[in-house]
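Quick one, probably user error.
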């Protein structure tokens, strides 16, 4: 098994050694994994119940949203020096609670405060939050920002909606609420930025939103029990959906919306991350404490990484 894993990981290396960053929920830690050897090379304690992970554009900082546990809501974001493998600060976002979705754009960190129906922004250079906006929608979970920064998108689980914020010429933001199916949780923009897809955790469906018109142009059944994340492949041709309750990875053709393949993954597949060269996808199988490596050409699992207990959010160290 060790040889098998090492060969699979070696295939991930493009031009230089890559370091994978993984959030382990069960031990509240960010771990560093050398993909060439499969070994954990570092560990940084973070807050309770870390869910999402993102790295700054320059690769210097990593951010972990400390969502908290069931009985104890979290209210911090860990700011980590990637090179030093050290938590610089644990940003207290109070009175905001349940920080979850993260997105880094133009030097700023955007995050959701799920309990407060808010998307906020943190400036790491100034070490302060400098903007926030209410969605008015229950369980604002994930957040994304368009490439030009003119639009912000949130997935609102309990409200069965996607919110699209447009930045006006006067600096004000205008919100459009787009109704979708039940329990939109994961979402992703197509590589061309024209469509936003969301997977619905409570009805097994997927909604496709035309970004320009801000309208749902298609809804179809992906036959999932509880979809967790949805992700375009880098070429935009396929869609990956993790089914947390069903223990499966569903692969769809983005053009026809037809199912291409369905793979048994194990207990609670969650996070999805593409490799830098776009040839593979990493799937965090939270309940089985491993990360599966999917070859995007053959659509076969070629190996597994063992980062520790409860992996979920992932990112690449640059």
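Nope, works fine. Designed sequence:
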């Amino acid at each position: 098994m060790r040889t098998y894993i090492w060969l699979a990981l070696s295939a991930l290396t493009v031009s230089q050694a890559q370091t994978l960053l993984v959030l382990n929920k069960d031990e509240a830690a960010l771990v560093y994994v050398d993909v060439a050897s499969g070994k954990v090379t570092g560990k940084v304690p973070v807050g309770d119940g870390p869910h999402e992970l993102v790295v700054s554009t320059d690769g210097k900082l990593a951010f972990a949203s400390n969502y908290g546990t069931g009985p104890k809501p979290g209210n911090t974001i860990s700011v980590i020096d990637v090179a030093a493998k050290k938590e610089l600060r644990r940003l207290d976002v109070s009175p905001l609670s349940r920080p979850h979705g993260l997105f880094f754009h133009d030097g700023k960190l955007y995050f959701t405060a799920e309990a407060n129906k808010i998307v906020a922004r943190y400036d790491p250079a100034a070490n302060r939050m400098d903007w926030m906006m209410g969605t008015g929608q229950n369980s604002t979970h994930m957040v994304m920002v368009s490439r030009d920064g003119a639009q912000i998108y949130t997935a609102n689980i309990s409200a069965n909606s996607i919110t699209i914020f447009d930045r006006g010429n006067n600096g004000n933001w205008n919100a459009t609420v787009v109704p979708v199916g039940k329990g939109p949780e994961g979402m992703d923009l197509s590589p061309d930025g024209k469509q936003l897809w969301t997977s619905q955790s409570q009805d097994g469906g997927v909604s496709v939103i035309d970004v320009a018109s801000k309208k749902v142009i298609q809804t179809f059944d992906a036959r999932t029990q509880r979809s967790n994340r949805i992700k375009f492949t880098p070429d935009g041709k396929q869609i990956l959906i993790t089914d947390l309750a069903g223990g499966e990875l569903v692969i769809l053709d983005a053009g026809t919306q037809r199912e291409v393949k369905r793979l048994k993954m194990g207990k609670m597949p969650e996070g999805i991350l593409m490799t830098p060269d776009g040839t593979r996808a990493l799937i965090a199988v939270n309940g089985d404490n491993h990360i599966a490596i999917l070859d995007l050409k053959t659509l076969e699992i070629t190996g597994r990484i063992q980062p520790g207990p409860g992996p979920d959010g992932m990112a690449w160290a640059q």
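Residues 1-11 have pLDDT under 50 and may be disordered.
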